[in-house]
Structures
1.
Amino acid sequence: MSWVQGAAESNYGIHHLPYGVFSTKNDPTPRIGVRIADQILDLRMIVAAGTCSGCDTCSALSATTLNPFMALGRDAWTQVRGQITEALTNNEMRTAVSQGLVPVNEAIMHLPFTPADYVDFYASEHHATNLGRILRPNSEPLLPNWRHLPVGYHGRAGTIIPSGTDVVRPCGQRKSADGEIVFGPSVRLDIEAEVGFVVGAPSRLGKPVTPDDFAEHVFGVVLVNDWSARDIQGWEYQPLGPFLGKSFATSIGTWVTPLDALAAARAEAPEQDPVVLPYLKESDRFGYELSLSVSLNGTEVARPPFAQMYWTPAQQLAHMTVNGASARTGDLYASGTVSGPNREDCGSLMELTWAGSQPLALSDGSTRAFLEDNDTVTISATAPGPRGSVIGLGEVTGTVTPAIG
Ligand code: MN
């Protein structure tokens, strides 16, 4: 039990303890904090109050981004999580530790880590099947490679933005309804509700990571909105894949949930057929029971279930490095759109409105095929924690602003 008020009922209880980077109006220096209930524990103050004269861990925790701490690896992550748990549960430490608490509503949240590389996968069988049916209606919905490898592409790390940042409607080339090639603001702006995995401990160039080493490298999880301009994407993507239709912005949640906080959310992943090649074989195959919720201007429009993803995050990391490519501290790899078997389980408007042909009704009486200017999209998620508790991942939200130029 934590002594912090409200912790027992909060989705940010003592079993969660996500990491973020924040500043305040009075103290604009970004610093690392851990969220508990409606408070943020400023780790800089905890380090200053201790007796350490500058070990790697203390200097990493005094940084303005999570990267140095994430680079230290699992032993340091476990040790620090234990110390924070002790500080927030031990009543004798209450007076001292309370000095380091800052109310969440006074905090300005920043990107929690400096992104290194960004990879986006395509791991939901339901999403890939839906897109296949929409884009290639008269052929087999899944392409021949899909069940053999986790399909992915490299995205643009430099345009990863923290939750709450506005998204300017992108401009680009598209093919108009009468087949003309035109330039202008995207008219089919979409979202993709995804779960992102953040690499902490790097891997060595030339040496693949096995699926069983997943937890040695992955520090934690963030929610991702992979904004997608379907009209730009549809015209540009062959033969080299997504480019400007995706690279204008990717939003991430500002709280990184440690992998350890999701231990109770581990769930059996779907059986794979055909049997995968040995480098993708897991000795303990699991996904995570995360229930996502997507809302558009306050109306919940989808509830995508992450547990049914065909390719697991461990397989994705193994695939991403099997050619010898190294994983770096700060690499973000996202699951791909999370979609379940039913229409209301789908994590993109492309599927929810079936390419715009069946608009959604919002609670204000309006309808949407794709996003309009000033629309706000928020993705949240919950997961089971230990002993009946609930973990709530940091939400990712963003508002579309009009195109510039
Ligand atoms: Mn995506």
2.
Amino acid sequence: MTHSESASSSTPGETSAPYGSGPAASSSAPAGRVRLHHLQAAKAEGRHFAMLTAYEQYTAEIFDEAGIEVLLIGDSASNNVFGNETSLPVTVDELLPLCRAVARAAKRSLVLADLPFGSYEASIEQAVTTGVRFLKEGLAHAVKMEGGAYYADTVRAMVQAGIPVMGHIGFTPQSEHALGGYRVQGRGDDAARLVEDALALQEAGAFAVLMEMVPAATAAQVDAALTIPTVGIGAGNVTTGQVLVWQDAMGLRGGRMARFVKQYARIRQDLLEGARTFGEEVRDGSFPGPEHSF
Ligand code: KIV
């Protein structure tokens, strides 16, 4: 049985409430752990789910409490944690501790780990080995990997090994150089290629397919062709799920934002003001006051 098949069935012995009956009014996440079959049910019932990146304990705790259904330890940690310019340099050994921290903190969210560049391309064996490491050492529940039909056999082997896989098509940041930079994919006739890629991933057993920077019309074609959930980032609002990098969505990262980013908080400004005030109070001697001293 593939994960897409098992995802649509109920889970015997599962104690969590059915999808949609969770306590958080603002979220449709279940009261217990979000499972693949909850995401599949969202697709089947025409509902949406939310996904944010997380790379450490506190944001994972907060997003979990907020009812975000999926937390992604993205290879975007390369840019957003380790200070690299692209996602390419980050390694499995760098991502694993971040993944463990998120997995320990997340009580309900499904924990999804990105396979970084260089950790799955060489062979099916390499991909299975890396996937196993993320579930075993990283405590992830599933992995995401970039690439389309070319990786169908790899996905099939991973799924058979018990590793749930989300595909990632459209703009794939690990292929930034091959793709000639950050460019929208799947315009016009190229939409058919994305549909073929997505169908091949579904047939191989992927439990979902993420689309990055593709026209909404193309995303709609892909979503309509699939029975498994889709997730979008810069792919319009037709997909089952939506994902954003948390530092973009919550306003920690400064600078220019991509068109598809919406900011829901202004964390950078709060931190800046807090740090400035702390510095001033230390320098003028008003901190620590008597109430903070023994
Ligand atoms: O690593 C990442 O942040 C991603 C995005 C698509 C969310 O893969």
